[in-house]
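Notes, p. 3: input format for complexes.
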Amino acid sequence: MKTEALEVLKNRRAIRKYKPEQITDEELNAVLEAGTYAPTGVGTQGVQIIAVQTPEYLSRVKALNAKILGREGDPYYGAPTVVLVLETEECRTHTYDGSAVCTNMLNAAYAVGLGSCWIHRCKEMFETEEGKELLREWGLPENLKGVASMALGYPDCEHPQAKPRREGYAIKV
Ligand SMILES: Cc1cc2nc3c(=O)[nH]c(=O)nc-3n(C[C@H](O)[C@H](O)[C@H](O)COP(=O)(O)O)c2cc1C
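Output follows (173 residues plus flavin mononucleotide):
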C-alpha cells in the first residue's frame, strides 16, 4: 500500500487563511503538473488551467467572484495565487474533467506543503462580460466554461481537523 499518497488524500483540508507571501514557481509547477495528469473523458485533456498571480488579474478575478457571491471581501481568503479551471462545452465531460483536475491540484498542494481551497462560482464568473474580457486578454477562446477555481498559498492557520465521515458513505454490495 502506498500509504504516503493515502495520507495526503485523507489529511488535505480546505484552508481559509493565507500568508501574503507568494509561493515558489517550483511549488506552483508541481501543483499545475498534477492537474494535467488527472483523468479526462476519452483522454481529451481539454481542460484549461490558468494560474493567476499578477496583482491586476488577481484583484479582477477575486472581485468578479465576490460580485457573484454578492459579498464584499476576498472569497479566496487572501491567497496570493488563484487557479482557474475551465473547459469548452464541446467536451461532453467538461464538468467532470475539470473537477478531477481541480481535485488533483488540491491534493498536490497539500503534498508539497501548500494550503488550498476549492472556491465556487467559476461557471458564473466566465458567463459574465468581465469574465469573457479576461479570457480575451489571456488569448483564450471565449467559449470556455468555468468549472472550478481554487485558492492557493501558504496556510496562516492551524491545520483543520476533518469532520467524522458519514456512516454509510461507502457501501459494499
Ligand atoms: C464544489 C465545491 C465548491 C466549494 N466552494 C467553496 C467556496 O466557495 N468557499 C469555500 O470556502 N469553500 C468551498 N468549498 C470547500 C468545501 O467547503 C470543503 O471542501 C468542505 O467543507 C470539506 O472540507 P475539507 O475540504 O477540509 O475536507 C467547496 C468545495 C467544493 C467541492
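Residues 13-91+112-153 form a domain with the NADH Oxidase fold (CATH 3.40.109.10).
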